[in-house]
């Protein structure tokens, strides 16, 4: 078991619905440690950089609009196998396919409004932590 760091963005729709505490509680109950936490707004420039790999998708403009529509909560989480543990708690990308009991399965109905982004690899986690928190 390797101790890992991961990075999540609690998206504007979740903050708007006052689900921040509920979501962070799920990570804490699992045993993950909150290392860093911030409430902020993401600029269009940073959102486009963060989702650059989706730049050619038809949903890209809508995704950028949604991610910059209000405050978000950024968090760095740490624990054994944190990347896969967090992704298991978050559930499938499409809320319509996410299992009940997961964050997306319990609180989201349709894309792109899936409540939370979670890094998908150690490299992505470090790159995203650097992008959003700096050193
Ligand atoms: P996230 O995990 O933040 O990574 C990319 C995001 O793009 C994803 O969550 C969704 O918000 C959004 N997304 C992915 N696929 C689709 C799709 N088919 N239609 C609309 N939005 C999508």
How would you describe this structure to a colleague?
The protein is an alpha+beta fold and 135 residues long. It contains 7 helices and 4 strands, in the order βααβααβααβα. It has helices at 12-16, 20-30, 44-50, 60-67, 82-90, 103-107, 122-133; strands at 3-10, 33-40, 72-80, 116-118. It has a 4-stranded antiparallel beta sheet with strand order 2-3-1-4, sandwiched between helices. It is globular, with a radius of gyration of 14 Å. It starts with a strand and ends with a helix. The model has no long low-confidence stretch (mean pLDDT 97). Residues 54, 59, 63, 93, 111-112, 114, 117 line the site of adenosine-3',5'-cyclic-monophosphate.
- Chain oligomer state: single chain
Poorly predicted spans: none
Proportion of residues in β-strands: 15-25%
Write out the distinct hetero groups bound to the structure: adenosine-3',5'-cyclic-monophosphate
Percent range of helical residues? 40-55%
> Tally of extended strands?
4
N-to-C SSE string, H for helix and E for strand: EHHEHHEHHEH
